[in-house]
Write a structure and sequence with these properties.
The protein has 280 residues and is an alpha/beta fold. It is built from 10 helices and 8 strands. The protein folds into 2 domains: 162 residues, Rossmann fold (3-Layer(aba) Sandwich), CATH 3.40.50.300; 67 residues, Conserved Hypothetical Protein Ylqf, Chain: A, domain 2. 41% of the residues lie in helices and 14% in strands. The strands form 2 sheets. The chain has a 6-stranded mixed β-sheet. A two-stranded antiparallel sheet has the order 7-8. The chain binds guanosine-5'-triphosphate and magnesium ion (MG). The site of magnesium ion has 4 residues, from α5.
Length: 280
């Protein structure tokens, strides 16, 4: 499947992030713990040059705990500290102290220049649907940022005062205009970072089946009570039948089966599945 995904509003979002960047002291980059490579926006590295940067592997509760640990060790070995996180329920105190530590240079600089203290300004960035708004709500402790389980919910800009010494800037999820690596694109589509409406969900679900059987043999059979032998398309049909997604004429409802499978994968109902692990 060839995935194309750069909707027009993303250029606007990108311009907005760029124009606010000079105000930002620390960038908190969210990635999906289930696919930290696919959910890396390759444009960020250059954009954030010279900025203090923290990496958060979010949705860690949905990812394989063993592989989560491998990723934090991997990033540590490259000199980048990555924290695993669950933006829906984790306590934020460790994260906040890391942010404040990273931003401490601001106070130092202000003091040297004899200026009034000001809050550290944090920008939360990441691809669509990775949990940016959820994290901000968690940090703020009340619902201020708009959350929805589809990509591209956050559109406008918003600064949020977290405490007297910290301000946050929520950004819309941003993808990049050109993509060559279709495997990464597929992973992003599995995770729900690409608008489902532009995807062939049946094809995507069949690819998901193939991927899960390869990475986690037995997981599908346990969830759906099916055999994992045969072509992924056949397995897809069997799962649809098993779930009663049947149309008139006794045909399997492909669309319903596909949406069900992707939803269940995204919610970790098929298990805590990581799509990528560091190369050893
Ligand atoms: N299980 C789990 N779900 C999460 C986590 N973080 C976010 N979610 C869910 O993921 C979906 C997307 O979350 P958002 O916070 O809207 O993501 P976003 O990055 O702001 O998305 P855009 O603004 O569309 O780019 C929502 O259904 C959240 O409840 C997490 O750590 N664990
Ligand atoms: Mg958002």
């Amino acid at each position: 499947m060839n995935i194309q995904w750069y909707p027009g509003h993303m250029k606007k979002a990108w311009d907005m992030v760029q124009s606010h960047l000079k105000l930002v002291d620390v960038a908190l980059e969210l990635r999906d713990a289930r696919a930290p490579l696919a959910s890396e926006n390759p444009m960020f590295a250059q954009l954030l040059q010279g900025k203090k940067r923290l990496l958060l592997l979010n949705k860690a509760d949905l990812a394989d705990p063993v592989i989560n640990r491998e990723w934090t060790e991997y990033f540590a070995s490259t000199g980048l500290e990555a924290l695993t996180f669950n933006a829906k329920s984790d306590d934020t105190s460790v994260l906040i102290s890391r942010i404040l530590k990273e931003g401490a240079f601001v106070h130092e600089k202000n003091r040297r220049q004899g200026r009034k203290p000001r809050p550290i300004r944090l920008m939360v960035i990441g691809v669509p649907n990775v949990g940016k708004s959820s994290l901000i709500n968690r940090l703020v402790g009340r619902t201020t940022s708009k959350i929805e389980d589809r990509p591209g919910v956050t559109r406008g800009k918003q600064w949020v005062r977290l405490r007297k010494d910290l301000e946050l800037f929520d950004t819309p999820g941003i993808l990049w205009p050109k993509f060559v690596d279709q495997q990464k694109a597929t992973h992003l589509a599995f995770l729900g970072s690409i608008n489902d409406l532009i995807l062939d969900m049946t094809l995507l679900a069949v690819e998901l089946i193939e991927t899960i059987i390869q990475l986690y043999p037995g997981a599908l059979s346990e969830r759906y009570g099916i055999e994992e032998s045969g072509h992924p398309q056949e397995i897809f049909e069997t799962i649809g039948r098993q779930r009663g997604a049947i149309l008139s004429g006794d045909r399997v409802d492909h669309e319903r089966t596909a949406v069900m499978l992707l939803d269940e994968f995204r919610a970790a109902k098929i298990g805590r599945i990581s799509l990528e692990r560091p190369k050893s």
